[in-house]
Amino acid sequence: MFHWLQLAVAALALLGVAYYLLCLWSAASFLLARRRSRAVNGEAAFTPPVTILKPVLGADPGAYESFRSHCLQDHPQYEIIFGVGDANDAAVPLIQQLMREFPQRQIKLVVCAQKRGMNRKVSNLLQMLPQAQHQYLLVNDGDIRVRPDYLRRVMAPFAGDRVGMVTCLYHGIAASTLGSKLEALGISTDFSAGVLTARQVEGGIRFALGSTLAFSREALDSVGGLEPLVDYLADDYQLGRRISAQGYKVLLADVNVETFVPGYSFREFFRERIPSSLAIHRFAI
Q: 255, 154 in Cβ contact below 8 A?
């Protein structure tokens, strides 16, 4: 009996080693593809007008600097539409301050008073979308901070044939608590590894990440718009999966953005990590 137990433990250990070797291979493959793409294409030349849609709720850590980073983009034409569910939301004064600091930018604030389905983020997006002027749309979460070349690098893949969506990896910026540091470490290591492994195993990705959801109106219209997603929790996964199912490519951009992790206690960290771990295995299958 003990002999069989030893064999079972050894087999499980070998499976774990095999998975992490697959993760390393997947990461190396992604980095090699990115290097080749940059060598062939050089600086991104495809820079269409873009509407950034940012549904926000409250003020996350470093919220103003995160909002501000979207106003510093090296991109010829874009607008930013913020959406809040309540005119008294804590993010509203920050957005108003942003408008004063960047009067040259097209920045709008939409108060989304209606509740259209269980997913409040999608409900807000449905009410923000009529304000969007451009044919390319980009949605990202309120706690995302980006570099000045973010828009250029995310939009560049749309120059390719049948590209319907571009998403990107992200890494966590931790607060001072242990739970926050562990969560940031998990985001930056096992979560990203799971995404890259799914990409390698499936020969591409069939989902998207809330850090960046960039898509064309054509691709969005092909899946019936955002309305079918109002009762789904994982709207990012669903949107990427549905666009992929319509024959469009979903690509991973060669840019990594920052997300600011709340100051979780150790108990809150475990409560957050259980569904996150399930999501990683869902991507990797």
A: yes
Q: Mean pLDDT over all residues of the chain?
A: 86
Q: How far apart are CA 209 and CA 4, in angstroms?
A: 42
In 149-224, which ranges are continuous DSSP H helix?
150-155, 178-186, 192-202, 217-222
Q: Which residues, 6+ apart, have CB-to-CB distance to 51 below 8 Å?
A: 78, 79, 80, 81, 132, 133, 134, 136, 137, 138
Q: Calculate ∠ Cα 270-279-27, nearest 5°.
A: 105
Task: Please name each of the domains of the chain with its CATH number.
Answer: 47-284 (3.90.550.10)
Range with lowest mean pLDDT among 45-54, 123-132, 261-270: 261-270
pLDDT for 176 beyond 70:
yes
- Please report where in the chains the tokens 């070797």 appear, as a residue: 21
| Sheet with 163-173: strands ordered across | 106-111, 78-84, 50-55, 136-139, 213-216, 163-173, 249-260, 144-145
Instruction: Give strand ranges (E) for 29-115.
Output: 50-55, 78-84, 106-111
**Could you tell me if 109 and 92 are in contact, meaning their C-beta atoms sit under 8 angstroms apart?**
yes
DSSP state at residue 140: -
pLDDT digits over 96-109, tens only? 999 999 999 999 99
- Token pair, residue 199, equals 């990409």
Write the pLDDT tens digit of every residue in 129-162. Answer: 999 999 999 999 888 999 999 999 999 999 989 9
Q: Please name the residues in contact with 152: beta carbons below 8 A apart, sequence gap of 6 or more.
A: 44, 47, 73, 74, 75
- Report pTM: 0.86
Which segments within the chain are labelled E, that is strand? 50-55, 78-84, 106-111, 136-139, 144-145, 163-173, 213-216, 249-260
Share of the chain above pLDDT 70, in %: 89
């024959």: which residue's tokens? 247
